[in-house]
Description:
Blueprint: H1 2-19, E1 29-37, E2 42-47, E3 59-65, E4 79-87, E5 90-98
Parallel strand pairs: 3-5
Antiparallel strand pairs: 1-2, 1-4, 2-3, 4-5
Amino acid sequence: MNRIIRVATIFTLAVGIATGAPAAGATSISGEVRKIDASAGKITLRHGPARSLGMEEPMTMVYRVKDAAMLKQVKVGDKVTFEAEEAASGYTVTRMERAK
């Protein structure tokens, strides 16, 4: 029985890798930088639906950033794609890059 479970798990992972399926919770969100507060480590983003965070409607929100260096790579008005997670202290941007 354990052998069957292991084979099924390996098969599922292989299919995910082969199809380029994103990792769970790694869904990018499209947005625009509205404000940067480097001293507080926060960024205000206007973005579309963020289903990975349970947000079905577009909105503007203030996020913390996991790494303050992210704030130096963007400026107000830049279009970005980002990933964020919810924590006890609020929402935190874990990855961000300028949209192409």
